[in-house]
Design a protein that fits this description.
By secondary structure, the chain is an alpha/beta fold. It has helices spanning about 45-50, 80-95, 140-150, 160-175, 180-190, 195-205, 210-215, 225-245, 270-285, 300-315, and strands at about 5, 10-15, 25-30, 35, 65-70, 110-115, 125-130, 130-135. Bound molecules: zinc ion (ZN) (2 copies).
Amino acid sequence: MHVFSNPVGAGSLWFDNLSTADGTPVAYDPQARAFVPMPPFCVNRDVIGCNWIASEQGAFCRSCAMTALAPDMSTHNAIHNWALTEAAKRWVLDNLGRWHWFRPEDPGVRPVFHMLGEGPTPVAMGHADGVVTISVAEADEVLRTTRREALEEPYRTMIGHMRHEISHMLWWRLSLRADFLDAFRSVFGDERADYVAALQRHYSAGPPIDWKQNHLTTYASSHPHEDWAETAAHLLHLTDIADSVVSAGFSSSGLPRPDWDPYSEPNAERLISVAVSVIMGINHVNRSMGLPDIYPFVLSDAAHRKLVFVHDWLRRGAQGR
Ligand SMILES: [Zn+2]
Ligand SMILES: [Zn+2]
C-alpha cells in the first residue's frame, strides 16, 4: 500500500487515517488515490469509521455502496467487527483498483458483499454469482485464532479472507471471457470436478502427501476453485508487500527504485522475487519481537507457475485486454 501525502500540511498519511496528526479531518479519494480535506465524506464515516469520500452529502462511498447486507446489530460486537471487516475490504479494493478492477473504467460487474454477523452457527464465507459473503465475526481476534488453530492454518486475517473470497469473484468475472477457461484448466485442472465431494474429502482425509509440491496451502489442494482463490490471494499478498516496502522508503541494492510500481510491473517473476527477498528480511525482524512470520509460506516451482498465471490475468482482466 502507498504511503500518502498530507493534503493540508507536512507529513504522511496512512491508508486508514481519518485525520491528520494535528486533527484536521481528511478522507481518501479512491479515484485520485489521494487524501482530500473536504467533504462529502462517506455516510458510514461516523458509523464504522469509513474514511473514503462520497459523491455527494449523505451518500455511501464506492466501497460501502458494494455492501448489500450489513450484520444484524444484535450479534456480538457487530459494529466493531463490521468496521474492521469494511477496512479490510477497502484495502483490498484499492489494491485491485491498481489493476483497474471495480473502478469506473472497469466495464464489468462489481462484487456485492453480504457482511454477516454470527449467532451460534458459523457463517460460511464464499462467493456465488458475484455475491461475496463474509463473516464479520472473524474480525474478533479470539474467534479467528481459535479457527486458525482448529484448521491448522499458519495465516488467517480479514485481509486474507477478503483477498480469497474476492478472488473467487474475479475467477467468475474472468470465466465470462471466451479465452480464460481453457488456459485456466491447463494450469489448475478442471474446476467442473465435484466441489462438495472434494471439500468433504479434504476435511475427512486431509491434503495429499505431496501438496507442498503443487500448492501454496493445504486448502488450495482441495479443488481447482480453491487453488485459484488461494493463489490469487497470495499474489495480492506478495504484490502488496512489495508495494508497501518500496512506498515506506526502504531501499537496498536488491530492491527496485522508490518510483517502481509493482502493479505496473509486467514481469511476474521480478515482482515475486522482490516480494520474497523482503519477506525473508521482515520475517527475521518479526522474530525479534516474538511475532509470527508475516508470510509463513514456501513457494514451490508449481505454485510459482500458478502465481505467474494469475498475475497475467489479473493485470489484463479488468478492461478485457
Ligand atoms: Zn464508506
Ligand atoms: Zn474459497
